[in-house]
Amino acid sequence: MAASTRKTTRKTETFTDEERAAMKERAQEVKASARRGSRADKAAEDEAAVVAKIAEMEDADRAMAERIHAVVKASAPGLAPKLWYGMPAYAEDGKVVCFFQSAQKFNARYATFGFNDKANLDEGTMWPTAFALTKLTAADEARIGELVKRAAG
C-alpha cells in the first residue's frame, strides 16, 4: 500500500479540562502582565494575585501554600511571587524557579512543590525536582527553605 493511502490508527491526544483551564489561566496572566504599569506596581499586583489564589484553595492545601509562601519569601527574598498557570510561583528575572501546585489543581491525591530548570539544584547526574506534600512539618519547612535558598543561589 502506498504511503499516501495508508490509514493511520494513532489515537488523538487531548488535554484534560484541568489542563485546558491552566492554559487559559496562563494566557490571562500574560495579558494582565503586559497591561500593567511600573515594575513596583507589577510586583505588588503579582503578589496580591498569589495571595488571592492561595485564599481560594481548599483548607489543607491553603495551609501548606501559606506556609510555603512565607518560607520562600524568607529564604529567598530576591524571588518574585507570581502566578504561573494559575499556581503560586516564585521567579527570578521573570523565569519561574519554584512553584506550589495544589492537589485540587489537577485532581491529584497530593499537592506538589516543584522546581524548574532555572533552579540551581544540580547534584550529580540525577536530582529531585518535585516533592509530593500531604502536610508540612517544621522539618519539611526547613528543608524547603534550604532548597529554595540553593535554587535561587
Q: Decide which structural class fits the backbone.
A: alpha+beta
Average per-residue pLDDT, rounded, comes to 91
Element-level helix/strand string: HHHEEEEEH
Q: Evaluate the radius of gyration.
A: 18 Å
What does this structure look like?
The chain is α+β, with helices and mostly antiparallel strands and 153 residues long. Helix content is 44%, strand content 18%. It is built from 4 helices and 5 strands. Strands 1-2-3-4-5 form a 5-stranded antiparallel β-sheet. It is globular and about 40 Å long.
Would you summarize the structure shown here?
By secondary structure, the protein is an alpha+beta fold. The protein is 44% helix and 18% strand. The protein has a 5-stranded antiparallel β-sheet with strand order 1-2-3-4-5.
